[in-house]
């Protein structure tokens, strides 16, 4: 079997030991070693700048070295090179610290043998190869977590830093190790938050030479406070004199905060559990109680020490205790929570109904270690639920009866709607000099949009003579059945008043008096606005009376004007049905061929948009002027579409009625 050829760097200032070591390596059975000697650390580091060494054998106490820190210095320069440390001291702790610092082995010079040295070199190289493989894997997955690297330091007993790595500088908030060493010159005064903490550190080091998990609060460079954990050992010379302290630092601020949060959480949990009015308990896998809150203890009439270690059979009737434990076993075996309502009987008390929730308890390893339960008295709730069930049964019966009545009411409303629609003009009268209906001088158009099944808007068109037409429109406040009944009364009154229908003012005055007389007996006044128009194509006049109604628009197309029809006096007149002795005047406007008089109710413009802004009469007037040349039917549809667009497509809030009287050029010639 061929001997493995190795090139080894020996850093040793004792020539005799170097020869002794070389002789032993010459006796190696399986190794062929090319040993290169350097008498000091600096010379050895310079040699490492070259390439090709398979291992380094380093004297712990080389004169220009730094003890265990020599390992760190060599690893910084040649991180992939295995290191074997040699020394005079047969100290197990020192050997462990050497390996901890990164060396692969520590050999006592006086105990060296050729076979032991050969074995150490082979094992060191193999261990280092394994370490490098592991390091490569760790670097692959942990390269982003440099902040988790431990800080490394050397400090004098007097409190100055001799050496610090970049991780320590980063933990303490410094830009570099050099800045840390130059700035932090008195550890006792400048680093620790707690006065005297450095003295405690020194005391422990003097007593034990090694300290682990020394946790303290420190000031960072910017004045912020963090928690650190220090692991440190005292480095002494061969005579036992203290040289310096060296160790590592870990930032444990997050852990400390987590511990504090956990303590607060546990305190909050216990405070909550102990003050809740519900009964809370825990059991182990054998069904023994391990905890009970104050409410649970009160319900049993026992103290917690009297409960812990006992089972359900110690407190409850046998049949209930057996049932409780059967439920417990199911929760523990399945790992599923259990929720149910069941009977419960505390000692010395009547049976009650309780709501119970049981959940499995898990240990840190995820294994089930018991269960936790919570229950509370729902006896009154159970009785209330029973009462509610009885009431709900009665309500269901009432709902069925109401559905039947509602169905009947809907049928009646549908009939009322059909009746109300028959009250509106089914066809318009014709006014033709030639007697042909198709050549009527007056053309009528309407749009009727009730918000409910029946509405409070009404209009009628009647022939008063061969040349005169009467157009009546009204709006009863509100909508629905009540408003529809009033419109039915008004329609009947309008029919009765045909003898005075040619005089708008007289017609409206008589209509108001009759309506007031009827409504007086009901004791409920109903606000009703109305407008009555008498148009005569031969006289070319439009005579009208207004009872608080929105002013119709007079579209004078040949003149290019659109104007509201105002009262001659310029004053508004009251709505119908309010003042029994109210008198209404007749106003007059000229009527020309091409004119359109547009009557409407206020539901047309009392519309809100999504920003809660109302569509105004001024906007309606402007829109009518914009589309004045359209035929009446197209004009009405255009206005309705624009208003729906303004309201983002929402339905009209009130009944809408539009009526148009259009004075046209008839086929029989000039009217």
Short description:
With 671 residues, the chain is α+β, with helices and mostly antiparallel strands. Helix content is 38%, strand content 26%.
Brief descriptors of the model:
5-stranded parallel β-sheet; 5-stranded antiparallel β-sheet; alpha+beta; 671 residues; 18 helices
Secondary structure elements and their pairing?
Layout: E1 4-11, H1 15-26, E2 31-38, H2 41-48, E3 55-59, H3 69-77, E4 83-87, H4 92-101, E5 105-108, H5 114-142, E6 151-155, E7 161-164, H6 166-172, H7 177-183, H8 187-190, H9 197-208, E8 210-219, E9 225-236, E10 242-251, H10 253-275, E11 279-284, E12 289-292, H11 294-300, H12 304-307, H13 318-334, E13 338-344, E14 352-362, E15 368-377, H14 379-423, E16 442-449, E17 457-463, E18 468-476, H15 481-496, H16 504-522, E19 528-536, E20 541-547, E21 553-556, E22 561-564, E23 587-590, E24 596-600, H17 617-626, H18 632-646, E25 656-663
Parallel strand pairs: 1-2, 1-3, 3-4, 4-5
Antiparallel strand pairs: 6-7, 6-10, 8-9, 9-10, 11-12, 11-15, 13-14, 14-15, 16-25, 17-18, 18-19, 19-20, 20-23, 21-22, 21-24, 24-25
Helix pairs in contact: 1-5, 14-15
Q: How many runs of DSSP E, i.e. beta strands?
A: 25
Q: Approximately what portion of the residues adopt beta-strand conformation?
A: 25-35%
Kindly report the average pLDDT value. 87
Spatial strand arrangement across the major sheet: 2-1-3-4-5
Largest beta-sheet characterization? 5 strands, parallel
Helix content: 25-40%
Radius of gyration: 53 Å
Which spans of ≥5 residues are poorly predicted at pLDDT below 50?
A: 141-148, 667-671
- Helical/strand content category: alpha+beta
Distinct helical segment count: 18
Apparent shape? elongated
Please give the alpha-carbon distance between the first and last residues. Answer: 136 Å
